[in-house]
Amino acid sequence: MNAESAETLLRCFRPGQTAEGRMQKAVKFAEQDSELRKKFDEQMAFDQQIIDVIHYITPPENLREKLTGLSAQPRAEKKGLRRQMVNPAMLTAIMGVICLLGVIGFVVKERMEKFAGREDVEGLLGTAAKMSGAEFERIATTPEQLGDWLLMGNYEGYESPPELAGMPVVGWRVFYYDKGRRVAQAAIDKHELLLYEFHANDFGVQLPDDSGWVLLTKDAWVGALRQHQDHCVLLAFLGSKSDMHEFLKTLPKK
Amino acid sequence: MSSYGDGGLQTALIPSAALAEFYRFALLLTGNAKSAEQVMAETLVEVEGQLSQFRNETSRQAWLATHIRERCLKNNASAPPAAPRLVRDDSETGEPAVLKIEAFLLAQRFHMLPEPERSALALFYLEFFSVEEIAELLKMDTDLLSDTLGAARQLLQESLRGMRGESAP
Description:
By secondary structure, chain A is an alpha+beta fold.
């Protein structure tokens, strides 16, 4: 045994402890090593002082009762929650609510997807495939500046989609779709996007007001439609619904 | 069933001396009496029903000490060490009040030690477990425990020296 190993052992020596085995050897080693002995004596004196003080700490006389009282409230809450979660009635109720929410979600989704006027809007989307680009009047402006041009083309009540503000418009036209329904259209020089705007009443479209975009496809084209009062905005480009989802994410919030 | 009836805790399984030691342990780790009591109560609720599964008294106490320690550390994480303050005046028991106060101030100084030094020294001073048991409880070997105890003593000494300095006029 050397001074280092003796010191390692002696750090774990408690005052009043009977030294046995290796600890006894360490104590004997310390008795013959003045430096280690000094350290050990100081350690023992310090430990004894602290132990004395610690043992002066007396728990409250009614500790058991206090602990029971303190535990009563959290215990009741904890058990209550646990029990409720595994209670068959509670589980059934939770399942019922989940089912109901599922049904409501399904109905809302169905209503959104099978909205009135959907076929006409899909037909309108289908016209994009037949376009060459020559149909447009060339222009360099932004969607919010299009109102006057469209008015000249006999489209009244244009409402610029705020999500497209500032985007470069390179062409515009007003055309008549099936049964003389007027449609405003603009070509946007971003994502080869086509912007359609028409009046909901003309197409019999009934979507919840400002309920967000509804996606629809026709041939290789994908469209995103939303309604605000009598104004319907349809964005379209060649691609899939997931492409449109990604594109819509890039648009600023209204 | 415990002596506290259906709604009571199984503290009856813990001897009074052990309960007092656990209280001191919780006090040294949390630094104040209120937190120590709260931690013990919460721990006993958590382990309720499992205490009786231990046939060996030492295993039961080691298991309980582990849970109390974990809860104390969690409590400390949410409530960082506060400046020393007196938390209880036990002078009515007839003991010298000054010594009581020193004991609680010591607990607060203990509370400010880092882990695992604080737990190691608290368990060592409480003489509750053997050195080998403390090492096992703290998941370290005895050599590392020895180093930890050495460092903890030094930190506590420095802290107590600082306390004397603070109380000096």
